[in-house]
Amino acid sequence: MSDLPKTRSGRRTRPVAVAEAIKDWVVEKGLQPGDRLPGEAELIRRFEMSKGTIREAMRLLQAQGLVVTKTGPGGGSFVGEVGRERAQSLLANYFYFQSVSIDDIYAVRIALEPAMAASLAGKLTEAQLDELRGITAAYSEPAQDAEEERAQHVNSLIFHARLAEFSDNAVMAFIIGFLAQILTDLTVYNRLYAEPNHELWREGLGHQLSLIEALRDGAAGAAEGIMREHMEMARRLMQDQEAVVMKRFIAE
Amino acid sequence: MSDLPKTRSGRRTRPVAVAEAIKDWVVEKGLQPGDRLPGEAELIRRFEMSKGTIREAMRLLQAQGLVVTKTGPGGGSFVGEVGRERAQSLLANYFYFQSVSIDDIYAVRIALEPAMAASLAGKLTEAQLDELRGITAAYSEPAQDAEEERAQHVNSLIFHARLAEFSDNAVMAFIIGFLAQILTDLTVYNRLYAEPNHELWREGLGHQLSLIEALRDGAAGAAEGIMREHMEMARRLMQDQEAVVMKRFIAE
DNA sequence: TAAGATTTGTTCGTATGTATC
DNA sequence: GGATACATACGAACAAATCTT
Q1: Dihedrals φ, ψ of A68, to 5°?
Q2: Last residue of a domain, one of A58, A79, A100
Q3: CA of B11 to C1' of D5 (A)
């Protein structure tokens, strides 16, 4: 038969073995996103397995974001770069089964975001700074009701996610973006006040505006301090509103 | 036909639609890991789709770690808790396509691990403290050669991963464990010195031992400071050895 | 130990859908 | 619009694993 580890003793199933073989093959060949993989017919010949088995293997890889398939002439399977959104979804699956509290998330944010802000001081272009200013425009006026306040909160999370994307530290950027995604999609507020808290709104907006200035001026220490205050304030706000993390999957 | 969104306009393929439907179903029913899912025959009836299509859907879920299947009587598909190792692998797939440097990883470790150490001060049981002491025993003597030095380094990463697992903050624990995994599996040292650096060995071991004491005594500030020094030292060590992150997939 | 029952795993042949030329 | 090339989907049969008796 093939040189693949057989399914003897019941362990690995055939599609899994094929998927791993293809994975290894991509690494060995150093294939890049967009590169062609062999078509179904070719894989059937090489592995000496049926069409169904090969297709199941491709589904395993597709779920991980490692391949994308296209129909039609010139179609087939291609190496696919694992996107940020997909990686976020897959990781969220893990935390679905863990108990995660708002405090857990903010413990990480408070540790990471000030450090990231400091590292970005003086590194942003005017265009990037302008984009950040533009985001803050979405909440430049105090919210009129609870619903609007929630919308502003979501928008302010976009500020953080975007800022993280400007970092050239891919690990830091992913984690911060992931946490912002969780807070945006999986958070429910048990006590959203009918009367929005204008005091906290003013304070939060002030933080972000002065943060942008500090980043522009290359004031790393100031940026770090402002971000720390901002994070502490955001955590208090979430605690006030008795926010909790919901248990559901993030849509891909 | 079925009530599922059809494949019209070419978007979602049928197995993907089925997989999403099952995912939603698990959330709605509040199913827990180990709970039974409908068998193949049942799913074929419900979705009015062929066996092959249903099986491809199950492979999509299997790749995400959300279901496991068993053959034989009493077998079938079950809700599977997404394990830490699998989540790490899936996330590593994402970073495979990003450029990640040792400095990027350490920027996160330096921000997170001291905070985690502080939060664990006074919270560990004697058994947990003993386990940490046991891990340090693996490098209680200076390394004789470069290979042994690398083994000690890997073991000291186990110290950090295990410490993170003692945290009740699942987010913090996962991130720290993930970074330790990356450093263990994907790091290559370009200049592993023929002569192991006894100075740094002594310093590193001292850090971990005094960290254990600080944790036992509930000295949060001390634990945080020691961990910060320890992280800075580890980063310098990696820089000295010109360590780099390799590009390959982590085996599942 | 052995036989039977149950459920997933795998194959093959055929037909359909979709995108490119 | 027709031909082509590819993935997508179906159905029936058989194989393998594993639990029960």
Answers
A1: -130, 150
A2: A79
A3: 20
**Residue matched to tokens 């979804």:** A89
Q: Which residue of A has its CA nearest to B101?
A: A169
pTM over 0.70: yes
- pLDDT per residue over A34-68, tens digit each? 999 999 999 999 999 999 999 999 999 999 999 99
Chain B contact set for A18 (CB, 8 A): none
Cα–Cα distance list, A182 to A16, A165, A247, A252 (Å) = 31, 16, 11, 13
Domain contains B48 = yes
Say if residue B97 is in the same domain as residue B24: no
Nearest nucleotide to A76 (CA to C1') is: D6
pLDDT at B8 over 50: no
* Domain termination residue (choose one: A79, A105, A131): A79
User: B193-207 pLDDT, tens per residue?
Assistant: 667 778 888 888 899
CA angle at A116 for the pair A114 and A119, rounded to the nearest 5°: 110
Of A94, A107, A174, the CB nearest to B82: A94
Nearest C-alpha of chain A: how many angstroms from B24?
8
